[in-house]
Write a structure and sequence with these properties.
Helix content is about 40%, strand content about 10%. It contains eight helices and six strands; from the N terminus they run H-H-E-E-H-H-E-H-E-H-E-E-H-H. A six-stranded mixed sheet has the order 1-3-2-4-6-5, sandwiched between helices. The N terminus is likely disordered.
Length: about 230
């Protein structure tokens, strides 16, 4: 599928995020995110769910850009902020705090006072997908938002891709900007690739599947952000 790119060269990152929040391009994802927000998990039955696409979060002047797969159904889809309210976010923000990109190690709600310094977080797909598995069509409908972020985040120099899905999405975004790597670099944890003005670093996603099994440790995650810090 050919990805259509919108022309919004004069838009700010805030304007882009306002458009992201209103997006209804993917019927399956719209139904799922809204059903989850309506039915809720028992532990959060007294909370109002966000139930919309998630905008990016962080410092618009960031030199580090962290890109994930998609929001979690009862994490970001509940709280309205990337990697907030779930165990993946617990791991991610602890690591960012320890390396100096966040002012606190906890991210439990959009109003908890968390700030990022020099870092920005977004995802390839902006709505929570069933079973954490967006389709290729859903990915391609969402990619133009990533392409626009490349234009808005003008100071980014290091991109950390959380998982192979994000890695491939970021490479597509680079190709959109005329940065084509031959051969295509293969995803791997702590793999570091020079790509035009950027440094792309792969990182296992801090999902429970990876953290519970020991595939990803806190030291491994922190090491990736140490690598990123050294490249900024």
């Amino acid at each position: 599928m050919r990805v259509e790119r919108k022309k919004n060269s004069g838009a700010t990152i805030d304007e882009l995020n306002r458009r992201i929040v209103k997006c209804r391009l993917c019927p399956r994802l719209v139904r799922w995110r809204e059903e989850v927000a309506r039915v809720k998990r028992a532990a959060f039955a007294d909370q109002a769910y966000w139930g919309r696409p998630l905008p990016g979060f962080g410092d618009p002047n960031a030199k580090l850009w962290v890109v994930g797969l998609a929001p979690a159904a009862h994490g970001g889809n509940r709280t309205g902020r990337m990697f907030t309210g779930d165990r993946s976010g617990d791991w991610l923000y602890r690591a960012l705090f320890r390396i100096g990109f966040a002012n606190q190690p906890l991210s439990v709600s959009a109003a908890d006072g968390l700030r990022l310094d020099g870092a920005y977080i977004s995802a390839i797909v902006r709505c929570a997908p069933p079973d954490n598995k967006p389709t290729i069509l859903e990915r391609d409908r969402c990619l133009p938002y990533l392409f626009e972020e490349f234009e808005r985040l003008k100071r980014v120099r290091v991109i950390v891709a959380l998982g192979s899905f994000a890695w491939d999405g970021v490479l597509r975004g680079m190709r959109e900007r005329g940065i084509v790597l031959h051969p295509k670099p293969k995803f791997g944890h702590a793999v570091s690739v020079a790509a035009g003005p950027y440094r792309l670093i792969g990182c296992y996603h801090p999902s429970q599947q990876n953290t519970f099994t020991g595939k990803l440790s806190e030291a491994m995650l922190e090491n990736v952000f140490k690598m990123a810090r050294q490249r900024i």
